[in-house]
Amino acid sequence: MDSKKVVIGTLGSHSALQILKGAKDEGFPTLIVTIPKHKEFYKTFQFIDEVICIDSFSEFPSIENELIKRCVILIPHGSYVAYLGFEKNKNMKVKYFGNKNVLDWESDRDKQKEWLSTARINMPKQYELNDDISFPVIVKSHGAAGGNGYFLANDMTELKEKISTFEHKKYVIQQYIVGVNLYVHYFYSPLTKRLEIMSMDRRYETNVDSLGKIPHDIQKEIHINPSYVVVGNSELVLREGMLSKAYEMGRDVIEASKKLVDKRGLYGPFCLETIITPDQNFHVMEISCRIVAGTNLYINGSAYSWLNYNEPMSTGRRIAREIKKAIKENELDLLLD
Fold first, then answer.
1. Which domain holds residue 152?
2. Does the pTM exceed 0.85?
3. Are residues 194 and 266 in the same domain?
4. pLDDT, tens only, 108-164
5. Statement to judge: residues 265 and 213 lie in one domain
C-alpha cells in the first residue's frame, strides 16, 4: 500500500459519519460504501469525498479489488458483521484497521467469558439451562445484535417457553443485575502502548426504558414484554473516584487479549459494557472490540478526550490520528489486517 495515497473508508451505517468526519479533520480523503436508500443522505456531507453505491451490502466483495487499488483502509464498526456476515467480514481482502483475530472472541460469548475471566474482571453469573438458576435472568444471542431478541425470565417455565424462540441461535443465560448501565469507550494505541478512556454513554432501549413510566398495576393488566432493542444513547460521566477502576479494567482486558488472541491483542477502539451496583462495583456484561455507536455523542469530543487533547477528539478522529502517526513513523503494518 502506498501510504501517501491512503483513503479512509467505511460502510454507510452505525458510526460512519463520525469516522469519516474524523478522517477528514486529520487530512485524509474519505469514501463511503452504501446502498441506494442511503445514497442521497450521505452525499449531503461535504467531508465525504466519494459515495460508492452497491445494490446490497452482500455485494461488497465485488468492489474489493477497486478499493485495494485505491489504497483504501476500512474502519470497522458494529454493522460489519450484521451486513457482511462473520466470514465475509473476517476474510475481506481490503486493508482493515484492527486485529481480525479478536472477531472470534467478540462474537462468541463463551470466549468472552474466558477472556474476562483471564483479565480477572467481575461478571454476572452465567448459567446452562439445566443448572440451578437464581432468577431473574436475561437471555442474549451471540454476536452484535443491538439488543434485538434479548428477553428477561423470572422462572424456569418462562425461560423454557421463551428460549424456544431462539431456535438454532447460540445464546447465553446471564444473571440479571439491577444497576446503572454504563458503557466505557476506550482506545489502545499499539504505537505508544497507551490506553485512553475516550468517553462513556448509557443506552436507551425500547421498550424497557419506558416501562417505569407505567404504574405497576397497569403493567400487570396490559402484559407488556420488555424489549431491549437499542434506539439511542445518552451522555454520562463517571464519579471520579471510580475512574481508576474503569481504567484498570480496560488495561487488564488488553493484557489478557495478548495472551489469548495473539501477541498483537486488541487495539484501537473498544468498549466494556457494564452495570454498576449500589456498592459501586462494576459488572462487565461483554466486550465490543471496535468503535461503538455510543461514541456518536462525542463528535466534538467528550469531557475525557478534552482532558487528554484540549481539542475536539472523537473516537473516529482518534482512529485517523493513529493511522496518520503510523504513516509518519512507517509503522502502518502494525495497525492493519
1. 126-175
2. yes
3. yes
4. 888 999 999 999 999 999 898 888 898 888 887 766 555 566 788 888 888 888 887
5. yes
Are the C-beta atoms of residues 143 and 221 closer than 8 Å to each other?
Answer: no
Q: Cβ(56)–Cβ(38) under 8 Å? A: no
State the cell numbers at 319. Answer: 482512529
Instruction: Encode pLDDT of 226-280 as tens digits.
Output: 777 788 889 999 999 999 999 999 999 999 999 999 999 999 999 999 999 999 9
- Cα 71 from Cα 9, distance rounded (Å): 10
Cβ count near 167 (within 10 Å):
6
How far apart (Å, rounded) are the C-alpha atoms in residues 135 and 175? 7
212 with 291, same domain? Answer: yes
* CA 96/CA 264 separation, integer angstroms: 14
